[in-house]
Amino acid sequence: MKTFLGHLKEENMSLFTDYYELAMCAAYYDNDNFEPATFDLFIRRLPENRSYFLFAGLEETLNYLQSIKFTDVQLFYLKKHGFQADFIDYLRKFRFTGEVWAVPEGTIAFPNEPLLRITAPIIEAQLIETFLLNSINLQTMIATKASRVVEAAQGRGVVEFGLRREPGIDAGMKVARSSYIAGCQGTSNVLAGMIYGIPVFGTMAHSFIMSYPKEIDAFRAFSKTFPDKSILLIDTYDDTAGVEKAAIVAKELAAKGFCLGGVRLDSGDLAEASRKIREILDGHGLQYVKIFASGDLDEYRVTELLEKNSPIDSFGVGTKMGTSSDRPYLDVIYKLCETQNVDGRFSPIMKLSRDKNTLPGRKQVYRFRNGEGFFEKDVITLSDEPADGEAMLIKVMDGGKLMYKLPSLEEIRVLAAKNLSQLPQKYKVLVNSSLYPVELSLKLQNLTAVLKRQIAEKENV
Q: Where are the domains of the chain?
């Protein structure tokens, strides 16, 4: 039997969906409903203590849409679950043939703004929903969380250290990539380093120290193997004694023409300990030896440490960033906004559920900047409305074919850094941040009001 990893090839991902997606598609097929429809993917609301999203996951989405197909094994499985033979035959030839507009990966976005706009035969547009939501939810959630940690570090390095606590192999890979987009220096995830070209970092575990008779023996053994990049973990027994031994090893390395990279603190009062460690290192003339801190860190803890003037040079941030522990999901939505009539015209449509209203029609988002180049406001318009701002959605697929040069990971990272630098500081504070203005155009407001009235009259709501 194949392992789970053996099934994680893109061409096998067509069944990575909720059952009801296939059930709806079968009903569309059975009732000859093949007309095009438009869906928006957006995030409905901000989590607590968030004021923006950093969009990630587009590349995986586009790769999926280009490659989705059903294998004979998958079709046999669906047949066993009662799907009819003619629908199975339809799926045998299934390909995505639609049009996709998207915000570029690495872009700052806000609630209710379409991140993706899909126009395709309704069966195709429906079937892809679950994959899109799953992929973009995780990657945007982590990129946003990681950007907050990087911002809190105030220019000090942040390394993603959360692989062993992240929920599964797929998540571990996506967390490494998304956090790198957000500005982390790199990751501890070696596979992600190889696949994505992300710098990899690591120090040593307490078990390594404990496996030697004496702490200094462990330090010497490790620095012998890595004389030019050792970071010594000094708090296995006592951090003061540990740093004194690290200083001895640093001088031994210097005599051979090498430099000790740093020392790592992973427990206790990091603020107090780092001040003490810095004083000891400087007293030995080891100003070049850096202090690396880890241990249950997140943006709040990093901020607290720096407010206490902790002389920490870089941070290893794991569980709380890699799981977005304070908000481990986003309210990502994929909703129908337009259908085609029998005469071939597209008609806007919307949902009126309480607290879950959606915006009708094909839409565009325009961003406006102030005279200094900072984001000032966004306006959501209908797609055919002219506006003076920067159009955020760009056409990336047409007829199921990619018409967009996928940027490299480094280019996405640069775009993210640029977006974050242009977001005013009042929207990046960790608690009680200002609410960024997102407006609806007058034409969209009027359409929404008219549709609400028409739906209420038709459905007697």
A: 5-142+333-459, 144-322
Dihedral, CA of residue 160, residue 161, residue 164 and residue 165, to nearest 10: -70
289/291 Cα distance (integer angstroms): 7
Check residue 330 and give its pLDDT. Answer: 95
Residues of the chain where predicted confidence (pLDDT) is lower than 70: 1-11, 459-461
Q: In b/e form, how buried is each residue of 378-409, taking b as 16+ CB within 10 angstroms?
A: bbbbbeeeeeebeebbeebbeebeeeeeebeb
202-257 per-position pLDDT tens digit? 999 999 999 999 999 999 999 999 999 899 999 999 999 999 999 999 999 999 99
Separation between Cα atoms, residue 449 and residue 436, nearest integer Å = 24
| CATH for the stretch 5-142+333-459 | 3.20.140.10
What is the pTM for the complete model shown?
0.94
The 3-state DSSP composition of the chain as helix, strand, coil percent (nearest 5) reads: 45, 20, 40
Which CATH number applies to 144-322? 3.20.20.70
Q: Are strands 99-102 and 116-121 parallel, antiparallel or unpaired?
A: antiparallel
